[in-house]
Fold these 4 entries.
Entry 1:
Amino acid sequence: MPNIRHTPVAPTRAQPMAAGDSIDAHRHDDHQIVYASRGVLAVTTDAGTWVAPATRAIWVPAGTVHAHRAHGRLELHLMGIAAHEDPLGLDTPTVVTVGPLLRELLLAHTRAPRERGPEGERLRAVLLDQVRAAPQWPVHLPAPSDPRLAAVCAALWADPADRRGLAELGADAGASERTLSRLFRADLGMTFPQWRTQLRLYHALQLLADDTPVTIVAHRCGWSSTSAFIDVFRRAFGHTPGAHGRLR
């Protein structure tokens, strides 16, 4: 990522972002929790893209070069955590579930970050305890390094509703189905169906952030039926696509 900005202390604040807005590549010496209480947030590094609706937050470890992008009108909440104070012990980004209590703690802490009295410190301590206990449940799209795999992934990024299998996609990419299947596991750490499902969920979140009807989202993202889409979405996020808009 070119033009990397270095901000030693990760900011703690709340800020709005318009649909399509982005924050260019940058890094902090601190860890950071990035949460969108409204809209859908994508955080991208050289290793891939992590996606979070309002029921998820993204943990960005200290030193990680990352960029943000808003899908839908975003209410962004940023919380910096000193590098020596590490509630998760992770050196790669991850997505954690945000329940009602963690949500309210994040909103309160980022809207009044300068309150560092005893009450503010107690709130922060409870917040970090909640982060430690939060289940990790990501929508993560790892970035391919092999050029043949990158060609297949690029084709599906361009059209997530593309229903071709690996054999057909491989014919255009110059690789066999067996080779591509091996590369998905070795390069991306998941099977082709798993990666494609993650991609479709990412695009679904983007469309839902723009208030696209559920039936249209299912069609544009390649599910065989609206009911199949609803089932996959519910298993991934714990609620239906129809309920998703009410949670934003």
Entry 2:
Amino acid sequence: MARRFDHLSDAEVLLSVVEHGSFSAAAVVLSTTASVLSRAVSRLEGRLGAQLLRRTTRSLSLTDAGRRYADDVRAAFSQIEQAEQAIRSTTLQLSGKVRMSVSNSYGQQRLAPLLAAYARAYPLVELEVDISNRVVDLVAEGFDLAIRSGPIPNSSLVARPIEVSPLCLIASPDYVEAAGPLSSLDDLARQRCLAFIRPSTGRVIPWQLRDGGRDIDWIPPASVTVSTDALGVVWLAEQGMGIALCPRMFVEASLASGRLVEVLPGLGGRTRTVSVIYPAHRGLSAASRALIEMLLASCPVRPAAVAH
């Protein structure tokens, strides 16, 4: 039977030229000459009957057809790489390095036991964990995956939800006793609210509430604001400084011990989703895939991947 894909080496040449920006730069990486690579791309264009690259004496760029072809081929090569890694992972003990980013709140409250279990299962894998509220660029900064809460706006990322937690309003028992009866949003507006400032905008993050069955994004009249670490509002609430809104998963222990109590439950009902995210078009290592699967298996939510 004739080989159907004997031109794949030419497709790899195209991707390398695009990645490195020129035939000469790609030639250095591939240990060949620019003319050899130019002939490979021309051969590919002849096979497809379409121009893939616009060439000038100073620059080159993909045509519309070339962009579509390069995206599809890149995705196909990624799938091949994943298939090979999956086979290797069944016969070899996992090794290598996984770089991940996670927010302060989730890293401190939920992640440590899982990472400990992962380290026991795969002792040869080196873990590098960036615990901060800085929104990293996974591709540009070389991260394999990240854990983030809320919507994921980047269309080049895959997001797989791992946990969904109800939002709740909380305060210390002493604060509630001093505040008196609380029954409505109007009552809340007259209280001391502990708000978190979004680092990227410098603005207070709206509270996601549900009033009378209607979802509202309410800007709290903040008496105290916290930046950098979202768990700061929880610590301040425990000291009686006001009311805070946070995912229940971060205050379960404080509610159980009585350090905090839930207030105005009628304004609850909204949820916060935590997802593991990773680049859609970059092949994941077997070690990264194992960590993602462990995250999914250990948490109560396991929906399908969502490409944004």
Entry 3:
Amino acid sequence: MSPTPEQKPSSSGRHAAPKTRTLPIPVVDFDERVAPWCKRNVVICVIVPTILALVLLNCGDILVAITSELFGGLASLAPASPISIGSTIGRIATVLLCVLLLTKLFRLTLPDLGMVRENRFGTWITGVGFGFAAVTVVYLLNVIFGTLDVSFTLKMSELWVLLLAAVFFAFQGFFEELLFRFFIIPAYAAKLTVAGAIGLSSILFAYIHINNPNLTVFGMVNLVLYGVVFGVMYWRTGNAWFVAGWHSGWNFVLAMIYGSHVSGNVLPGSILSSTPSGSELLNGGDFGLEGSMLTTILGIAIIVWCIKTSPESNLGLFTRPSKPTRSLA
């Protein structure tokens, strides 16, 4: 008989959640995330979440635009960057309002959305660290292969922009994960299989980036793939803080430390500037490292690892919950 993960009481969900020694974070059975949706119909679980996620995404952009205008007098601090005090306030407000709306409208708790109570900040930092390490692997391989021209560009007068960008990306990454992983995947999984839920949410995730500049076929493939990566990661851990931290860490490091394109966009104020040179299969061209074949290989490896190390108690990728584990009033 294979060894089972150590069981301990958990305050992160309604039931005791299994602990596993394979990850340095609190891990919760994914069926804890699906349970609130089990007695709801397909309209509430699939159609409404899809429409609402897209509407909230657009509303979030509008709110960010409004706050950017309201705090426009501070724009001179970083005139060439979409990351400003106003846009950062808008991202924070968007996340808080969306969490409030989703919990009230669908009668969800914060743990239902993966926001476990145990070691929240430490788990988020761990996710950031993993995101940092993952993007650094792809970046260093490109430097070794000579497919990036790297120069030091940081000005001391712009040092504060790094701190502002860290906050901006923390909430920007959390917002996308909230809509397309923490909210949608469990809802879909109640009527589809988990694999179907992850696949459909990943297509939606790629769709919202379709107007990004310099988008390539390989870039679109990787957008879908990394929707799957984050989806499988969430299925594996049931922990929003870890997944959101990974997403935010990847974006911040790529944009503000390495100065590379992030989904086709280049942001000023980075420590380094990394211009693609040579094989676009390796550097992703003007779309950035997210369009790299190396990123594809890394993503597939992460998916395989998550599946291989998944605790047996988790809801399987190709199964649906057999019966509801939570009744709704």
Entry 4:
Amino acid sequence: MILSEVLSSLFAGARVVGAQGIFQFVFGPEKCLWVEVGERVEVRAGRHPAADVTIELDEEDFAGVLAGTRDVEALFADGRLRIGGRMGLATLLPQIINAARRGVAAAPQARQPNQRYPAPERIADRISAEQTALLEVQRRPRDGLSVEEFQARYVPQGTPLIISDALRDWPLFNMSREESLVHFAELQGITRHGDYVGKTFSSERDFRSASMADFIASLDRESGEDGPPPYMGNNAVPEQLLEQIRFPGYFDRSLYIKPRIWIGPRGTLTPLHRDDSDNLFAQVWGRKSFILAAPHHREALGTWSTSPEGGLEGCEVNPDVPDYDRFPGAREVTFLRIVLEAGDLLFLPDGWFHQVESVSTSLSVNFWVNWGRGW
């Protein structure tokens, strides 16, 4: 494998995902290369004196990542991939790899980092607009809800639902926080700091690497930081933890995207946004509050996208203090407020806007489902 050629090919479409800067790869003491992504891609051997981000990993693991047999996030969690410098820029690496696999070229579709685009209409918007406004989210016990009823009554229409007592067979749910620490030992995750609320979806957020066990052990201590407390949000569930959770039986296992884990103290906040897949959100420890809004309120909420084609979408409207002068249409939006208790599972359909806040020290696991309603 000629690393310079591989890196040149890998980063050819990096600007399509908004990645610009100097990526340095260290495969060993004497094997270092850096890639500068700008108007063009330049690859050079040796160390760069001012790289934006440095990625250290074994050459064999790197080959596995390119071949699709090894996962970037899993290697990071296990400590086999180390990151220095701008962690936010490094978080774009999975998108860069996916773009390379799709054969995406750089120009003319290259976009500026963290650029916002008008959010396009989705199928979920049209389905939502045709239905009677939902005034509350129903709560059903797991034992009183069959898979068949769930798939017939809630999935096609994209209707949110809370399923209670849903995690009783999860080992992670049935152990204390102290007992769980042994399963988090030797694992690392990415934490958010500073104004991560105001910089939603931005690679400029203050991301840092942290031991999962140490972060959990620190949850009840004051962070000493201004703004919201540090949040270990949207990390892939490491392989070692998969046996401690259970995939919900409401969709075929093959349709689930790799689950994500969210850990933080009281006060962590993810502002109003929406995802591009159906979501089953499991509350393992503590409580979380959600503010929901139906998909067809896209324009009223001042929705913007991270991509011209749509995808991750944030909102200009703050549901706690809507600016009706700028967004008068927000007066017509019904905001639904719910609280998830430990053991609850929330079905959050594709397109539903949601703001999430930790009411107490919290651990959650969510499962995005790629079943094909589309957007």
